[in-house]
Design a protein that fits this description.
Order of helices and strands: EEHEHEEEHHHEHEHHEHEHEE
Shape: globular
Strand order of the largest sheet: 7-10-6-11-8-12-9
Distance between the termini: 31 Å
Helix content: 25-40%
Strand content: 15-25%
Number of strands: 12
Structural class: alpha+beta
Bound molecules: cobalt (II) ion
Length: 304
């Protein structure tokens, strides 16, 4: 628990460990079917992050039965099941309750060989860092609530959030990596600080190479920042050095809480280009090398 690892791991034998994780939340998109897909992709991500293979899942449903049409719930569950099918995961059960606010998610169990477990504490000085999805979905979702986002932008970020991290995970295991985490609620900088602190390294980020949705920068300029973004900045700022010339709206994007964000992978420099090529071949087109681990200052992220 201390290291804020992405999921819980229990060794069954010398060859087999189980990974368990749970995640659920209130709708972040209007389309119930897409919300189901995103919630499932998000819950599955922590298994992929640790280099595991998800096997089974259980639905968690909180639904206001008196105020919402049951067809909405059916669409959410259909989205979740379709995503599980894509991930070759078997739905083995679940639990639902009547609640004032709609929430959906999954608890997921996966497996990994104990020696192949990937954590957020193995980064070494000299490692390169690869980020596999663009940032900015939290800011854009906030702007969606303000009614100012074009339909094609909504479609683009919805698709991004619904995309599984399965390919990135498989490829990182093939190539061999030192550490990984996924970018979710604490934002890119929050999760990068956690990685730096758990690995006892510093991390230098080259902001110009960090992939993000340009719309996120624009909406941040207009003030569409989710509450979590400010909390992330407050909490992680003591461990982050951002060059003074970096504009505030770019800083906002780096602190923006993500739903079902990408993997942040640390690996030897000679392997980084190889993994990047393979990711792009596999359709993970936005993946980019965004920085490196350094020996000092430990536990600090320097972004410029
Ligand atoms: Co995670
Ligand atoms: Co999680």
């Amino acid at each position: 628990m201390d290291s804020l690892d992405d999921a819980g791991v229990y060794k069954l034998t010398d060859e087999l460990a189980i990974i368990q994780t749970i995640d659920f939340f209130t709708p972040i998109v209007d389309d119930p079917y897409m919300f189901g897909q995103i919630a499932a992709a998000n819950a599955l991500s922590d298994i992929y992050t640790m280099g595991g293979k998800p096997l089974t899942a259980m639905n968690i449903v909180c639904f206001p039965i008196a105020s919402l049409d049951i067809s909405i719930l059916k669409d959410i569950l259909r989205g979740g099941i379709d995503k599980m099918r894509e991930a070759k995961v078997t739905l083995v059960g679940g639990h639902s309750i009547d609640d004032t606010e709609l929430k959906y998610g999954l608890s997921v169990t996966g497996t990994v060989h104990p020696k192949q477990l990937v954590t957020n504490s193995g980064a070494k000085a000299g490692d390169k860092l690869i980020l596999t999805k663009p940032l900015g979905t939290g800011i854009i979702n906030t702007a969606v609530k303000g009614g100012v986002v074009e339909e094609q932008t909504v479609t683009k970020i919805t698709k991004c959030m619904a995309t599984l991290n399965d390919k990135a995970s498989e490829l990182m295991q093939e190539v061999g990596v030192h550490a990984c985490t996924d970018i979710t609620g604490f934002g890119f900088l929050g999760h990068t600080v956690q990685l730096a602190q758990n690995s006892q390294v510093g991390i230098n980020v080259d902001i110009a190479s960090v992939p993000f949705f340009p719309e996120a920068g624009e909406f941040a300029k207009q003030g569409f920042c989710p509450g979590g973004l400010h909390r992330n900045r407050e909490f992680y700022s003591p461990y982050v050095k951002i060059a003074s010339e970096v504009p505030t709206h770019i800083e906002d994007v780096l602190f923006d809480p993500q739903t079902s964000g990408g993997l942040l992978i640390c690996l030897e420099p000679r392997k980084a280009e190889l993994l990047l090529d393979r990711l792009r071949e596999a359709g993970v087109e936005e993946a980019a090398i965004i920085g490196e681990a350094v020996s000092e200052p430990r536990g600090v992220v320097t972004a410029k």
